[in-house]
Amino acid sequence: MTPANAARAAIEAVWRIESPRLIAALARMVRDVGLAEELAQDAFVAALEQWPADGVPDRPGAWLMQAAKRRAIDQLRRAERLRRKQEVVGRDAEAAEELAAADFEAALTEEIGDSLLRLVFTACHPVLAPEARVALTLRLLCGLTTEEIARAFLVPVATMAQRIVRAKRTLAEARVAFEVPAGPDLAPRLGAVLAVVYLVFNEGYAASAGEEWMRPELVNDALRLGRMLAELAPAEPEVHGLVALMELHASRMPARVSARGEAVLLLDQDRARWDRLLIRRGLAALERAQALKGPLGLYALQAAIAACHARAWRPEDTDWARIAALYDALAQVTPSPVVELNRAVAVGMAFGPAAGLELVDRLADEPALRAYPHLPAARADLLAKLGRRPEAVAELERAAGLSQNGRERALLQKRAAALQD
Amino acid sequence: MRFMLFIHPGLPPSTEESLIPSLEAIGAMSRYNRQLHEAGVLLDVNGLHSPSAAVRISFPGGKPQVVDGPFAETKELVGGYWIIDVKSKAEAIEWAKRCPIDAEGPMIEVRQIFEISDFPPELQEAVWLG
C-alpha cells in the first residue's frame, strides 16, 4: 500500500468509527438530520485534505466535530447576509451566535447514546419508503458510502444517491422530530427499526438478487448495527431476540455453501464448521431476551428455534418437539402459511412423517403458497419417508419448476434423481 | 473481517505484582472495552494469567517436550486479547490506537483471523473435506 492509500484507508476507518456519533451529535445540535449529515460529510472532506499531510489527529472525533461546527456557523452567517441583502430581518445571526457558543464537543460524549437512538428512529421513520430507510440507516449508522450501499443492493450509484437525497428531503419536509418515540408509538416504531436491520441481514444471508448466495459484508453490517442497538435499547427484549437470531444464523455461514459454491441444507451441514463464537454470542443474547419481562416476540421465538439447532451437535440430537412448540407460539404471534409449513415439518420430524404430512396437506389450497417451492419440497420429503417414492419424485419436480434460484433448482433435481435410483 | 488484537505488556517476568493493574487502569480499560462493545465490533475479550505460570510445549524430533515458565525473553509475551469484527485492517488499527495505554513498553499487535475464503481454492476444498 502506498503512503497516500494508507492515509486514505486510515481516514476512512476513522470515518467508519466516528461518523454515527458525529452525525447523531450534530443532528441534536442543528435539529436536522439531512443538514447534520452534510456537515459531517464536509468535515470528512476537510480531513481528507489535511490529514494526509498533517497526520491523523490524536482525537479525530473532536477534530471532525470542530470542523463541522465551523461549517455550520459559516452556513448560518451566509444565510444571514443573503437575507440582509433582501432587507429581511433574519434570525440566522442569532442562531449562528448560539451555535458558536454551544459546546459541540460535549455533544459527542454527553447523552450520545440517546442521540444515536434518535438517529436510528429517524432513519427508520415510517414517512420513508422501506428501501429509503435501509439506505439512510446504512449511510448514517454504519458509515457506509453511497457507493458501498449501491454496490450492496446492486443498483447504480446515481440511483442510490438520489434515494438518499430524497429521503433526507422527505424527513425535512415532513418535519420529522429528532426524537425517540414514546408511549403507544414506541412498539410499532421499534418494530420498523428491527425490520430494517433484519432486511439488511437477509439481503446478505439469502441474497434475493445477483450471482452470490450470500453477501457476508451485509450480514456483518446488520450484525454490527444490531449489536449497537442492543446497547442503545437494552431493555427491549426483541432487540436482543433479533441479535440472537442473526448471530445464530450467521454462525452457520461457513457450512451453508460447499467449496464448489453449492447450497447445503441445514440438516446436511457439517456442524463442526459452525462458528462456535457466534453460537455462544447468540445463545447469550437469547438469554438476555428471555430474562426480560413479557412473552417472547417474533424475533426471540425464531432465535429460540435457531438455538435448538445450534445446541444439537448432530442433526439427530435436535429437539424437534420443542421446535414444533416454538413454531406453534410463532404462529400465534405472526400467523402465516409459511410458519404453518415449518411447523408441519417440525411435527413430521418429532412425531413421524404421517403426522407431518397431515398438516402439510391442510396447506395444499393455501393461495399464498401456490408458487412456493418449499411446500412441494417438504411434502416430497415426508412422502419419501413414508415410502411413497413416485409421488415424492413428482413433488420434487414440481418444486424445481417453481424455484426461482438456479442453485436451489439444481439441488431439488438432484434429490428427485436420487429417489429414482 | 476479524482481527485479534494482542496486548504485550512488555514487562520483565520478575515484576509479577505489576501485572495486577491499578484501579485507574482497570477503569480506563473497561471504558475502552465498553466503547468497542457499544460500537458493535467486539466479539470477545480476555486477559491472561501471568506469563510466569506459562508452559511451552515444543516438538524436538517430533516429540512433545514441556518447558515450564518463566521465560527469559519478555517482549513477545501476550497479556490478553480482543477479537473484533471490522470492515478493514485500517479500522482494526484505528481501534487499537484508541487503547488507553500511557506508558512505554506495552504494545498491541494486530493480526487478521483466517477465513476459509483466504485459502486458495484447492486448499478450501481440502479444508472442507476435513
Describe what this molecule looks like in 3D.
The complex is a heterodimer of chains A (421) and B (130). Chain A is mainly alpha-helical and 421 residues long. Chain A has 4 domains: 3-110; 124-176, Winged helix-like DNA-binding domain superfamily/Winged helix DNA-binding domain (Arc Repressor Mutant, subunit A, Orthogonal Bundle), CATH 1.10.10.10; 190-318, no CATH class; 341-421, Tetratricopeptide repeat domain (Serine Threonine Protein Phosphatase 5, Tetratricopeptide repeat), CATH 1.25.40. Chain A has 20 helices and no strands. Chain A has helices at 3-30, 33-54, 60-85, 92-101, 104-107, 112-123, 130-141, 146-152, 157-173, 186-205, 216-232, 237-250, 276-291, 298-311, 320-333, 337-351, 353-362, 374-385, 389-402, 406-420. In chain A, helix 13 packs across helix 14 and helix 19 (389-402) runs antiparallel to helix 20 (406-420). The longest helix of chain A is centred in the N-terminal third of the chain and has 28 residues, at 3-30. Chain A is elongated. The relative contact order of chain A is 0.05. By secondary structure, chain B is an alpha+beta fold. Chain B has a single domain (2-129), classed as Alpha-Beta Plaits. Chain B is flat, with a radius of gyration of 18 Å. Classes of the chains: A mainly alpha (421), B alpha+beta (130). Chain A binds chain B through residues 6, 9-10, 12-14, 16-17, 113, 220, 223-228, 231-232, 254, 258-259, 270, 272, 277, 281, and chain B through 37-41, 43-44, 83, 85-91, 93-95, 116, 121, 124-125, 127-128, 130.
